[in-house]
Write a structure and sequence with these properties.
By secondary structure, the chain is α+β, with helices and mostly antiparallel strands. The chain has a single domain, classed as Alpha-Beta Complex (Outer Surface Protein A, domain 3). Strands 5-1-6 form a 3-stranded antiparallel sheet. The chain has a 3-stranded antiparallel sheet with strand order 2-3-4. The longest helix is centred in the C-terminal third of the chain and has 17 residues. It is globular.
Length: about 100
Amino acid sequence: MKITELDAHISDSSIVVAIPEQIFSDIGGEAVILHLKTGIYHGLNEVGARIWTLIQEPKAVKDIKQNLLEEYEVASEECDRDLIALLKDFLTAGLIEVQR
């Protein structure tokens, strides 16, 4: 079942994937995403760009979190909070699909 932005509960077991209607460009460690349907650009910092790279194929939230904990010095709770917030932002912007 797909999750809409009105039902944006994203859990560790949720599967997320970037929509195909976008163009992604890495710019010196940061990134820009162009949503082709809306024409809106979205900028990402280094960590956001890494998350975006990870979700080019369907991936469980818990697996994304594990990657981030291995690659960056961040507390588990902070990682979880920031990751879920970013994924909800992506969902609201129509940039990802989420499955339970």
